[in-house]
Specification:
Blueprint: H1 19-35, H2 41-53, H3 69-88, H4 93-112
Helix pairs in contact: 1-2, 2-3, 3-4
Length: 122
């Protein structure tokens, strides 16, 4: 379904996903991860994070010209990683601690924003 709001002026319109489309995309990401034996886990986590930020389907963020694309990619990946952790390994101490370390690096990067990333923040 096309978004009834006017386009951004860049010749594009926003698309609203139905709940079933949202879940279908989530299933595709999970299947990709499964078929690659987890070697593309980071893509699954990033995709899942993007989907999470789009829930519910009426969510809309106006275009912002100056945001840090790499920072937001890392944020989306973290959101997806946490959502996936809850579903796949809610009691896995090692996975929980690894996610905590990733979040600590991300939080340092966010706290330093808008300074450019230095060191291993990503």
């Amino acid at each position: 379904m096309n978004d009834p709001r006017p386009s951004t002026g860049l010749g594009t319109t926003h698309t609203i996903l139905t709940r079933s489309q949202w879940h279908a995309l989530d299933d595709v990401l999970a299947e990709m991860c499964r078929l690659t034996s987890g070697s593309l886990e980071y893509l699954h986590d990033t995709g899942r994070g993007i989907l999470e930020t789009c829930r519910p389907s009426t969510w809309y963020t106006p275009a912002v010209a100056d945001y840090d694309t790499l920072l937001w990619s890392a944020i989306h990946e973290a959101i997806g990683s946490l959502a996936h952790l809850e579903e796949a390994a809610p009691g896995d101490t090692t996975a929980i601690r690894a996610a905590g370390l990733d979040l600590r690096r991300l939080s340092r990067r966010m706290l330093a924003y808008p300074a450019p990333a230095q060191g291993d923040f990503a």
